[in-house]
Here is the input.
Amino acid sequence: MINNNRHHSQFQLALQRFRGNKTAMACVFILGFLYFSAVFAEFLSPYSYKDEQRQYSYCPPTPVHFFDQGRLTWPYVYGLQLSFNEFYKREYVTDVNTKYRVKLFASGESYKLLGLIPTRVHLLGVESPGRIYLLGADSRGRDIFSRLIFGGRVSLSIGLIGVLISFTIGLLIGGAAGYYGGRVDNYLMRLCEMVIMFPGFYLLLALRSAVPDDFNSVQVYFAIILILSFIGWASLARIIRGMCLSLREREYVLAAKSLGVNDFHIITQHILPHTLSYSIFAVMLSIPGYILGESALSLIGLGIQDPFASWGNMLSDAMSIVRIKFAPWILWPAFFIFLTVICFNIIGNVLRDCLDPNLKGN
Amino acid sequence: MFNKIAFQNRRFALIYFFFLLFLFPAISQSQQNPQPGGQLVLATTSDPKSFNTIIAKETSTSEAVEFIFDGLTKTDPFTLKVGPNLAQSWEVSEDGLEWIFHLREDVVWSDGVEFTADDVVFTFNDLVFNPDIPASSRDIFMIDGQPFAVNKVDQYHVKFILPVRFAPFLRAMSQEILPKHKLEKVVKEGKFNSTWGIDTDPREIVGTGPFCLIRYDPGQRLVYERNPRYWKKDLNGNTLPYLERMIYLIVQNSDVELLKFIEGTLDAYSLRGMDYSLLKPIEQKNNFTVYDRGPDLGSQFIVFNQNPGINPNTNKPFVDPVRLSWFQNRDFRRAVAHAVDKEKIIEIVKNKLGYPQYSPMGPAVGFFYKDDVFKYEYDLNKAKQILKDAGFSDRDGDGYIEDQEGHQVEFNLYTNSGSTERVDIGGILNHDLEKLGMKVNFLQLEFNTLVSKLTSTFEWDAIIMGLTGGVEPHFGKNVWTSDGQLHMWNPRQETPATPWEKRIDELFSEGVQELDEDKRKIIYDEFQMIVSRELPVIYTVLSAKLTAIRNKFGNLKPSNLGGVFHNLEEIYIK
Here is the structure.
């Protein structure tokens, strides 16, 4: 679609520069790993996100033992017994007489891999009735590690799908406004400003309250994506519009026009591709906003609903200092939110530098 | 007092009628020469909405004026006996319908004006029974729709004439008396409902209680100073209260409250389950004591919507008729009751500091509590059997049960967001209901949205909610009689929909007219049996009421029913 070689090679140059940046590549690998784990969540997690074992409430991370009486052995975990001490603090007593071997490719709850292949194999497991909590358990004895992986599915996908929707809207509206100019431009930009004008989080809450209360979790999930996209498109549209204002005066656009190519075709085929380099890093930099938006909604209980996991609603368990004190592992979702947001930001920033044509000669 | 919908930790609680527990002027015999002075610093998590206690609908308001006003009587929180307050004694006619109160002659309002029978008559006739004022306590004072007659006999005597006998009359007489000389004019002008809002000059709020409000900084603090004209004196003739000042700090949430208590800013803190593990070990070091005041008076429960009505705006039924038929089926509710894992809920949600609840009167209420009601132990197999016998079974092998017509059992269960406790209870229950084969969509809504669903739009399936409670069973009338505003599962019925609701109506009208306490107990025992058998609401667990108080107060007698500082006027700094 884009004809000249120069543009292509410029893109390649940028990619080359990007590959040279070690931090950015590390971020790509981390994100790649997180998305991979989200796709294969059922296989990678030892338990289901709703596997509730109430006798293991706030169970600390299970230590995995490699030595038995000084001799290296197949890894195993001990059985645990909950008791409350005189201060009603939870104490897990290790029962050294019960050992449960850690199993690879263990058989557990049945599921469909990628939604297609029915199987019971999980990467990691432990002989029943033992339990392995790699990152500890939440209030109802659900495995935080497993829930993190399942939660990543929601939190990570919301960013991608949301960005896809809002950028489609943003590009089209920005493109149309810039291309037509005049009254169309005026109306569309005022519309953008109206959306931008509202403080984002309050607009989010207001839109959320407009969603029918009896939506189930899947519907809420899509509603949240739509709400976030609705808030996100406007700022992009404004910048795209600015770029289009200059692009529409270019000779090839005038040529296309005089050949009678229709407007939609000109905008999508001849103008928007030239905004691509900007769009790519803008996408990267705006994904964290979606992840944080979902987390904030779920944190206050208005997003993804229990028992479904998202990083935000897992974190709502940590909204009390006492719980953090006695079960600090419930803060893990915060770490993953932080990690993801940082990665997207670094990638976005590095991409911006790499795609900057002024750096070409260096 | 079963009359407020409680959010949690007192926040956003709604009062539907009125309080019932008030303070008792018992003066301790063993005093070690209390010194006047000092201050008490407490915290609250929400601002008062107004200082107008007559129309107050939420606990934040009633809490803010609690120590400014007094009633004619007070209930002792330990013995539950009604004692004198602004009235020093009373007489009752033989038929129990005519009451004459002898008012104290030494009471003055905090601005120096004398307190007389006119104030009492004004409070009842012009405020409580005034149809233009939405007085929150009117419903309990109206007996069969009739107010009672309140007349002035002379300066210090007031006569009440009741249309029928009214057992909790003396308890109800703890209604705060408001100053006629301050309010008469605004009532005449019809402006009472907007009087004493939060922008009022605190000096305008005149009471007979031990403290006066002197300052209110929205979002920061409420400051009270001792009322120098307070009528009560200690045994040595010193004017009470001893404390010079009382301050309510307004904090964002309970966590801030906890931190402020640990660092020493606050003098008292109500513990949530897990706080105990944090505070109990540092009791000695930080010089405070954790008092266990026993089970909470409030309740947390699941209620199913049994309202057969039709929404007049949309012409659709409030509840899907198929679902309605399940919710109206007692066996369905019994199965759900057997799926409530009370033991684990107490362990997980209350950190093991809680009690199971089975009937509308919890163990905290003492005299009227009935222990041997129908109890539903956690037993999923039994629940499955009950469902099977009632015609619910998995007919198409998809893991979910269907009713006899083949409709899959699926409903929405709501609770308010921001209450981790209820969200956890709902999550635990949801997990077990799924094991029974029910598809439950567990959803959190903002508190006010949920309350409006429950009390005005009626479009809901099942809700996890809480109510505050009290010792006087009759004050739960708005919940339990079939015409009640807060008869949540099917409110404001014209005639009782079921025989058992009819029986409860009868019991309540018998109970309120029966003056013999033992006979009343038999009546309310039957009521508790009916509720536990019919399960219109399915009770879960009660928390243990724990309060940490700094070790610097003398005469401190924390009570479960009357609060920690119910005898505030005689508390002093050691």
